[in-house]
Amino acid sequence: MSSFRVSRRALLSGLGVSAGLLPLLGGEGRAASPTKPTRLIIMAVPNGDTKDYLPQGGETGWLAQPMAFSPLKPLEPFRDKILVLGGVDVQNGADTAQAVKGTSIGGHAILPFLLTGARGKPGPAIPDGWNLSSGHASVDQYVAANLPGGETLPFPSLVLRTLRAQGYGDQPLSYAGPCLDGRTHNAPSSRDDPRALFDDLFGKGLSDSELKRIRAQKKSILDFTAGQLSSLFPKVGTENKRRIQDHLDGIAALERQLSSVTDGCTLPTPLAESEDYVSAFDNAQLPVVIRSQMDMVVAAMACDLTRVSTLLCSSSNNNSITYRFLADKDARFNAEFGGGETGGSGNKLFNHHTIAHNAGSLHGLKNILDQWYFEQYAYLLKKLSETTDADGAPMLDSTLVLYCNMQATGGEHQTKDLLWVLGGNCNGHLRSGRFLRWASGMQGQGTPTNRILAAIVNAMGCPHVDHFGDPDYGGELSTILA
Amino acid sequence: MITRIVGIACAATLGCTAYIEGGVGTTGGPGPVPVPSTPSTEAGTSFEDAPADPLSASGLPIRLLTRVEYENTVVELLGSKLPATSLFPAESQAETGFSKVQKVDQVGVAAYLDAALTLAEEASRDLTGLLGCDPTGASEGACVQSFLGSFGRRAFRRPLRAEELAQHASFYQDVLRSELGLGVPEAVELLLAALLESPHFLYRWEQGPLPSVRAGEVFKLNPHHLASQLSYFLWASMPDEPLLAAADTGQLETAPQVEQQVRRMLADKKAERTVAVFHEQWLGLTTLPKLGKSPGLYPAWSSALGSAMAEEVRRFTTNVVLRGDGRWATLLTSRASFVNGPLAELYGIAGVSGPDFVARELPGERVGLLTLAGFLSAHSGETEGSPIFCGKFLRERLLCDPMAPPPDGIPDLPPPAANLSIRDRHLEHAEVSPCKDCHLRMDFIGFGLDNFDAIGAYQRQEGQLPIDASGQVYGLDGESPTFNGPSELVLLLTQSEQVRQCLAKEWFRYAFARKEAAGDRASFDNAFAAFAKSDYDIRELLVAFAQSRSFTHRTIDAGEVFE
Known about the structure:
Structural class of chain B: mainly alpha
Shape of chain B: globular
CATH superfamily of the largest domain in chain A: Alkaline Phosphatase, subunit A
Number of domains of chain B: 3
Number of helices of chain B: 23
Structural class of chain A: alpha/beta
Helix content of chain B: 40-55%
Oligomer: heterodimer
CATH topology of the largest domain in chain A: Alkaline Phosphatase, subunit A
Strand content of chain B: 5-15%
Distance between the termini of chain B: 41 Å
Largest sheet of chain A: 8 strands, mixed
Largest interface: A-B, 116 and 111 residues
Shape of chain A: globular
Largest sheet of chain B: 3 strands, antiparallel
Number of domains of chain A: 2
Strand order of the largest sheet of chain B: 5-6-13
Helix content of chain A: 25-40%
Number of strands of chain A: 10
């Protein structure tokens, strides 16, 4: 959230250093940070969850509902390491829609509100008319910009997503700040392809000398380009200055990336070249892509290349992902659907959107699908618990892994009474091992996301905030903090 | 700290910039960053209400080459094959309905750099060919200088200023040759990469040695900037040598000089790109090959068929607009199209096979652009045609009547049943409040295309049910005419002044990469008059836009500083 003037000065001083003999500067971040880094990973499943499968039992020792394909079953082994929150409301999104449009918002359009906590305004005029924007940074980008020691990391954050949709479902999860020019989402680039991500993070497996040579050449070009941009900067108008500043910030971040070293890190296994693997955009590859993305994130964090990452699983209105790979659980995932139900779009194939829209008639499939996503979340928790920090402790202890979603029931676009999960211990800042339930629903009083987001910012060790987003929704949810 | 969202009341005003973001409250930390409001014309009067002031213009933000523009440009600049552009900065159609690059960040910078290095490596294999001189020995300095002058002018779309030539020469000599110790071939390669990574290449903001001429609060674009505007508008690519030469020599000053160039450019084959890109993005066809269609119901569907449909639209539109009479009515009603084997089979046209396209007359049930399989497939579901999708598109992009998002609690369509047609299942939406507020306006247009299935094949019946393709266009030119079937629907659209105005706005948004603003009123009205005078020849609309004051001038930005 720093202004362009501040970051520009920081950049120019950085250039002064790197214009010299181009030493490899990596490791400075780690060396300069005496305490163990705290990390944040956010996994969002836009069509996930119904409150039908909230845990049974009290605050501790909860159990997954005894139902077929019980969605929370995969989380039971991690019960002591997670906080299950029932009754979360994306109140800022609903209130915005009420104020702007005179109707509470459809759940599909809520992504700009999920992690930003702010009431917004008319946003980018998406052709579909779902044009709302919160005008605020999302919690991940806020944390990335304010995390002590974060400014020296090669990757301020890793913003990942799988299989994007077109149109209004294709809104971003992460926002760096208010809309550009008041019209365009200010979203960091999101990455889909885990193989390209591996190359970016770990240098394409080049030898040290080759890598050093190529990086020196790249940095010479970047320095020269930054000089051109800097000389344009004072001449252009305010709006254009922002564009140029973004570009300069991108160059500065890339220069840090090119100075990073991964000596002593355990590199993840890149996704193998295979005939099956068509691309990260291929539906059938979704299971492989998600897990590989998770492997990359954990490895990047273990190497302290980044401390913040978001993983947006598809989009809220993505009809193009079908789940044929779940055919072993229900043959209908692999069959042309000839029955009676259809989705809101006339689509009958089994995608998350259609299934969420028919939580009644497609109840069983909804459980299978949500369980599958919780299995992926559990995989991430497992990976973090198997990877150790420098002190030998599991990385899960130092990480906060949020699982969030935005529609309690897809058909009604209801964005209240949601189920969120906070995994990991965030270096002792979370009181894990509990299930907390708030009365909610369309009429009831749930916990606004703001209170959780403020707690996340504070648990992460950023400068303390009294609230996140709009202050009207209250301050940090202290009951989840240690 | 109190953060307030102000300005909800101006929700209906496009480009309202008076909001202050909700802030993050910190104790003793920095507060929210104020967003500087932009005192542009659009904050005040809307385009619709604006007077036609012949001396006005609007802002022209710097913008990055789109992926398509980048690809066309490097092909023409270097003759190279294309580098990977998949990690280039994301493009959004949110603002205008046409692609615009959002912003450059770390990922984008890296992608541009990788592309530049790949292109440079390829292009510098023939070093002498690239440079046009021998870079070895004593002639090295002069050769690099001459390359910077000639190649730099094409890459930056303007001559380099003297200090820029010196900076690049110094980068070559001091950094690449001396500091990094590179040999001549490698140093030239990296110099070329630096030119391709330069903001002067990536951004369309040509600030050459020739000054822009300031007239009050409005600027006349300098000739190289105008040349670049023209070429990216009409060719989706860089200026060619005649256009650059005209800019160099002051031959791009008067309206007749501009018109002469525009007509030359429209006659060039490269103009097909603009017509193709416009229609592909306007009609929502960019993802056509990737659409999922039910394999059980549509075994003919494939990515290749989707690509063929997109190709048909390209050929159909470029044929009418650039080689035919250019008229909007012809575009909406012509049956002269181009099909390959699979498409011919879909249309029921005999005697065409294989992947190659041939000119054919479409069967009688089809009438023009909106009955091409590509349009119909793009605005259908996966199992059946969709009156909602078709109607919504026509409502928003042909009538310029944006639809609000659905409110909470919209019931799903009733499931398919043997005794219910698609139309029957949609009628409920159109009868129940609040659904009917929008669905009356969308679905009753879409019903006109009910004879086409999810991949655009014609069907006389829907299963055993007859098809009722009658409908009504609510609020068309202030009336609500009824129609029966696609031909009558298309006829209504063809004759509508509202639709013509809307088409002109769509082309404006494409040409200017922004929405029409108050300062564009006179330019738009003049262009529309020329369009009308030519009996709605789209080429005349483009010529008029390119000569308009909004195209050749821009307002001065807040905070801009001049030398």
